[in-house]
């Protein structure tokens, strides 16, 4: 894996030459855009992406696409895998978006956190599945405005943990909630706020893909948006949360690690957006395949090494710590 780009810059995530790997053209039905997939590697090694598919009304559903190598020959479900169900869940009236998938070994189920787009705004909802065919909805866990949520894969001191992103007086900030039963959430704790001013992560930040467990801590890929005279820029950065106490950020990367650059990231329904909700990890436990939406229009893949991102955080990261969550 190269770590230096054409222009001699340090590259932690290298774009796949086949990008974009999935677009609306891969769908048999007329759809508007495919983006921001949750990702998981199934037991037989197949990569499953739970893609956000926006139809031509503007309403999103989640569709599974499966591939042996995670790059091409995608087999796409013929119907929406997880369509909104506004009759039984009125909070899904304007669609379901941006799935993050985590395997819960204790329950032997995948937990899917997603945005339920309700009349009151975006809310965090949770569903469980064993096979991506049948789903059990647990309902809205965090009321609007809240999104960018993911569970941690096991309990900490008997409690489940969920990262989420309420919109409040600090802008969009990253928080951690705990629950005894996956239904009742509380004891909220602020992990990270936008950095304000000129920073690349000045305006709103939120979890990207689910946390990645490493010996040094939980690696968090997060997105940040910065408002400019020309609109909004969405980039991806990295931070490290304490292994035992994920509510505490121990390193926050100073620079972004992936920013809109290629035409499929710069041009589309929402230009200048790279936005990731999922990754898979290779057999060596170090290679990371980051799946992301480009310009809210297509799906792309960037590959890197977890060890390199951790090394980079050592030299390009500031220590934050519990007392300095607000920057
Ligand atoms: C965020 C989410 C993402 C989207 C991004 C850029 O608020 O809605 O789904 O990719 O904006 O439009």
Give an overview of the whole structure.
With 327 residues, the chain is mostly beta strands. It contains 2 helices and 23 strands. It has one domain: 5 Propeller (Tachylectin-2, Chain A), CATH 2.115.10. Helix content is 5%, strand content 48%. The strands form 5 sheets. Strands 15, 16, 17, 18, 19 and 23 form a 6-stranded antiparallel β-sheet that branches. Strands 10, 11, 12, 13 and 14 form a 5-stranded antiparallel β-sheet that branches. A hairpin with a 2-residue loop joins β7 (109-118) and β8 (121-129). The radius of gyration is 18 Å and the shape is globular. The two termini are 34 Å apart. The relative contact order is 0.15. The structure holds beta-D-mannopyranose (BMA). Residues 36, 97-98, 234, 270, 273, 275, 293, 296 line the site of beta-D-mannopyranose.
């Amino acid at each position: 894996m190269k770590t230096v780009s054409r222009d001699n810059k340090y590259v932690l995530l290298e774009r796949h030459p086949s990008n974009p790997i999935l677009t609306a053209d891969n769908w048999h039905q007329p759809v508007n855009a495919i983006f921001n997939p949750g990702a998981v590697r199934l037991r037989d090694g197949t990569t499953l992406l739970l893609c956000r598919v926006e139809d031509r009304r503007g309403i999103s559903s989640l569709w599974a696409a499966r591939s042996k190598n995670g790059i091409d020959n995608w087999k796409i479900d013929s119907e929406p895998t997880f369509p909104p169900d506004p009759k039984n869940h009125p909070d899904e009236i304007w669609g379901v978006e941006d799935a993050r998938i985590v395997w819960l070994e204790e329950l032997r189920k995948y937990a899917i956190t997603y945005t339920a787009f309700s009349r009151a705004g975006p809310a965090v909802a949770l569903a469980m599945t064993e096979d991506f065919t049948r789903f059990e909805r647990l309902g809205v866990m965090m009321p609007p405005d809240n999104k960018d949520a993911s569970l941690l894969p096991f309990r900490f001191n008997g409690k489940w943990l969920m990262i989420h992103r309420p919109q409040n007086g600090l802008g969009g900030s990253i928080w951690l909630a705990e629950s005894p039963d996956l239904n009742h959430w509380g004891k909220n704790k602020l992990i990270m706020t936008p950095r304000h001013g000129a920073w690349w992560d000045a305006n709103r930040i939120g979890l990207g893909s689910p946390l990645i467990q490493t010996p040094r801590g939980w690696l968090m890929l997060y997105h940040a948006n910065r408002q400019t005279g020309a609109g909004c820029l969405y980039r991806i950065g990295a931070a490290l949360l304490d292994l035992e106490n994920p509510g505490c950020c121990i390193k926050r990367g100073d620079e972004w690690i992936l920013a809109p650059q290629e035409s499929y990231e710069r041009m589309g329904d929402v230009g200048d957006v790279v936005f990731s909700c999922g990754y898979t990890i290779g057999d060596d436990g170090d290679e990371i395949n980051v799946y992301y939406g480009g310009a809210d229009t297509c799906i792309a893949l960037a590959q890197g090494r977890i060890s390199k991102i951790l090394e980079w955080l050592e030299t390009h990261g500031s220590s934050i710590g519990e007392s300095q969550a607000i920057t």
